[in-house]
Amino acid sequence: MNQPSPSDTPQSAVDQQALDWFVRRERSLTAGEAAQFEAWLALDDAHGAAYARWHGDWTRLDALPADGIAQLRRQLAVDQAAASVPVSASRRDWFKAMARRAALATLALSATGGGYLAWQHWQRQPVYTASFASARGQQQAVTLPDGSVLRLDTATRVNITLYRQRREVRLLEGQAVFQVHGDTARPFDVLAGAMRITVVGTRFSVRHTPGTGSVDDVRVEVEEGRVRVARSSTLDNAPFVTLGAGQRIAADRAGRLGEIKPVTQSGIAPWREGRVNFDDTPLAEVLAEFARYRHTGLVLRDARVAQLRVTGSFDPLRLDNFLRVLPRVLPVQLRREGGVTEIAAL
Predict the structure, then answer these.
(1) Helix (H), strand (E) at residue 21
(2) Rounded to whole angstroms, how far apart are CA atoms 343 and 346?
(3) What is the pLDDT of residues 275-284, one digit of tens each?
(4) Where are the alpha helices (DSSP H) in 252-318?
(5) Which residues are CB-contacts of 19 (< 8 A; sequence separation ≥ 6)?
(6) Are 217 and 253 in contact (CB under 8 A)?
(7) Cα distance between residue 48 and residue 246, in whole Å
(8) Which CATH architecture has domain 128-262?
(9) Which end of the chain has the lower number of beta carbons within 10 A, N or C?
(10) What is the Cβ-side half-sphere exposure of residue 101, based on CA atoms within 13 angstroms?
(11) Which pTM value belongs to this model?
């Protein structure tokens, strides 16, 4: 059987060999290794071409701004932590990742005509995107590549985008608790309704449930650390408030902020323990909240009954307890007919 000639060697194998030699030459070669390298180059023209490609990718770093190079190195460290390059990777694997990212950065520079604006454009490209949705009556835990953890309540939808210099979660609907991994170089933003909540590292909850009829469009409660709350549409110029541990605030649909108040005794997000709390809440909103967790079969046909106020703590999956208590605390009666229960006035 004929042996393949050097030119028959698969290109990927040639690239690996070239990279091995590049890394070895970076840390200097012995006289014997230098002779082996020259022999390898002379064996096939493809060897020299592959070596030149790796050398070109690496030297293109000189075309990038100094702060861009520093950010490139920091991002590779983030990639390594996120398992893009395993911690156990060899020097060759690490070099390959660095050279490839250098090539991508140079490509971005070339494609847009060069300059720092091109580097900024490349920096703005996401490194991770994902969407998650929890089913009605279910909760879901999500761990992000940066180590941050989100806990989604029932009927909650989020879109997540991680960039090289910032992290962003869009809370489309529902509520979630955020345990943010601290990283001063990458602020963490939660966008909900008209609001932007910005942190570096903390634990807090955000609620945005426009379908419940609440006058509060967005609610923020802080358990640890500090968060900044502002309107997202005019973030640079809009007034903002800073919340510390044990504080909460709400905003309406226009982004107008209410007063800073203390978190209630039940703490942030009592739904983590299977509870929903109401404090002088209209009955219509109470039923809308229960409906986020399960089909209720409850209806209100009287506007006056809908505005009756409820205070208490309930298990949203145990409506029987709520219905047993309701006629004792409000002037209402339950009318069951055809699989539907109407809450009517006495």
Answers:
(1) helix 11-26
(2) 9
(3) 999 989 999 9
(4) 283-291, 303-306
(5) 54, 92, 95, 96, 99
(6) yes
(7) 64
(8) Sandwich (2.60)
(9) N
(10) 24
(11) 0.63
Q: Token pair for residue 123?
A: 């920096």
Region 126-136: what's the mean pLDDT?
93
- Return the residue matching tokens 């940066």: 146
Among 154, 308, 175, 148, CA closest to 248: 175
| d(C-alpha 105, C-alpha 107), whole Å | 5
Burial 26-55 (b: 16+ CB within 10 A, else e): eeeeeeeeeeebeebeeebebbeebbebbe
pLDDT tens column, 71-118: 555 555 555 454 444 444 455 555 555 555 555 555 444 444 444 455
237 CA to centre of own chain: 25
DSSP state of 6: G
Angle, helices 91-111/66-81, rounded to nearest 10 degrees: 130
Three-point CA angle 226, 232, 235, nearest 5°: 80
DSSP string across 49-73: HHHHHHHHHHHGGGGS-HHHHHHHH
CA gap 334, 78 in Å, rounded: 58
**286, 332 Cβ separation under 8 angstroms:** no
> What is the domain class of 274-345 according to CATH?
alpha beta
Q: Which residues contact 82 (CB under 8 A, 6 or more apart)?
A: 128, 145, 146
* DSSP-based three-state secondary structure for 174: strand
Q: Which tokens belong to 262?
A: 């203390």
| Domain residue ranges of the chain, discontinuous segments joined by + | 6-123, 128-262, 274-345
CA-closest candidate to residue 248, choices 294, 205, 198, 191 = 205
**CA nearest neighbour of 7 among 50, 36, 47:** 47
Instruction: Name 87's Cβ contacts closer than 8 Å, sequence gap at least 6.
Output: 80
Sort residue 106 into left (φ over 0), alpha (ψ -120 to 50) or beta: alpha
CA atoms of 98 and 64, how far apart (whole Å): 14
Residue type, 114: G
- CA–CA dist 185, 204 (Å, integer): 20
